[in-house]
Design a protein that fits this description.
heterodimer, A: mainly alpha, three-stranded antiparallel β-sheet, 3 strands, 6% strand, B: alpha+beta, Arc Repressor Mutant, subunit A, 4 helices
Amino acid sequence: MSAQRTEHIINEYLDRVVEQLSDLSPAERAEIRNDLRSHIDEAIGDPVHASEADVRNVLERLGSPQELAQAARERSPESEPSPAPPAQNVERRINGTPGALEVAAIVLTVLFWPIGILLAWISDRWLTRDKVIATVIPVVGTMMLGVVVVGGMIAWGTTATTTLTFAQDRVQPAQPASPGDPGFRSPRQIAESPSAPAAVSRIVAVMSLLVGLLAAPFIAGVYLAIRLKPVEEIIYPDGRRWRGPMTAGGHARPAPPTMG
Amino acid sequence: MRRGAIEFCVLALLSRREHYGFELVQRLSEADGLLTSEGTIYPLLSRLRRDGLVETEWRESTSGPPRKYYRLTSDGARALGHYRGQWEQFRNAVNSLLYEDQEAVSERSTD
């Protein structure tokens, strides 16, 4: 199931819980919502690998919004309520809509990949791993192209030299052969007649050109589009912020900054 | 009655070491039939915090977002000690009534 779908189901549930808690203070509601959210993330693990049934099962085990609201209304008889210390909540914001930067990165990767890839590296919507992969694809494609061009230049140089030597041999032959002889081939014909290896290398050259110039950037662009993550912003109780691509319900992403 | 007991089970778990919410739920779920809806633990924890029986601290986790750890306060430890005494009395009273007849039966059968 997609991360967005998981997110939708979870938020729907949390919204219904909070709705039922309308008689509590906003701070209490926010705290319970946050605590439930942390619990759900821990229970689900990687949302990409969680099926809808898994998610619904976790929510079912948590209980109905009505049950939670009832539990929230009970006061413990043993202790008198005292003024509550302020809730210390980590606030999470998730945004799944790709921004202009991400769209530009994907499109430019296909059209002119060095700029597109650069933009992708600036964006915080891809994992570093995915950025590396997206960079490697067109670089390898270009390297293939480079090898073929250099190889082709060397091969062309060799052919030209051979032809020249051959031509010189023909200009002053010890026993001149006439064009009427059945075995006679002009130097031009020899230089141009395509041998089997030459045909193969021509196909390789064309293929490399296609892969290097067109296919590799296209694949890289498609890869970026697939791997685009919703961005997650975490605001710590002390006001510090962390932003990055959302993964595994926040579990696989790099450790947040050290907290005081 | 169950919910009141859960509250002190939470305090008892916290008297051994700190736990984060999900961990507490897992520990309580190990005891069959104690926790019918896992989520009810969170309003309860919120209340315990407001009542000053537990305190919380956010701490980093190696595997994901920071976790909110719950720790017993001295008020919480006092409340737990008080409850233990009450519970013992209550349990003895209930046991003596529930099993009086059976004890009598088993005593008679061994005679």
